[in-house]
Amino acid sequence: MSLSPQLLAILVCPRCKGDLEYRERESSLVCPKCRVRYPIRDDIPIMLTDEATPL
Q1: How many CA atoms lie within 13 A of 26 on its CB side?
Q2: CA separation for the pair 29, 8 (Å, rounded)
Q3: pLDDT for residue 54
Q4: CB 11 within 8 Å of CB 20
């Protein structure tokens, strides 16, 4: 299952407040500016900076 377009429209990077790229195959949201990946688990984006992994 994918994330809803309404949710994707309002989510921003918690570090820089920039736009995120949704990568459905990787189950993640990527911030190209900060170069980090936020995981999506059970269709819930984990938007914690401690959970982010570098690209």
Answers
A1: 12
A2: 9
A3: 97
A4: yes
What is the span of the domain harbouring residue 14?
5-54
Domain count, the chain: 1
- Please write the tens of the pLDDT for every residue from 6-50: 999 999 999 999 999 999 999 999 999 999 999 999 999 999 999
> How far apart (Å, rounded) are the C-alpha atoms in residues 42 and 50?
18
pLDDT at 1: 61
CATH of residue 27's domain is: 2.20.25.10
Which residue shows structure tokens 């989510």?
11
Instruction: Report the distance separating Cα 35 and Cα 52, nearest Å.
Output: 10
- Can you say whether residue 41 is alpha, beta or left, with left for phi > 0 and alpha for psi between -120 and 50 degrees? beta
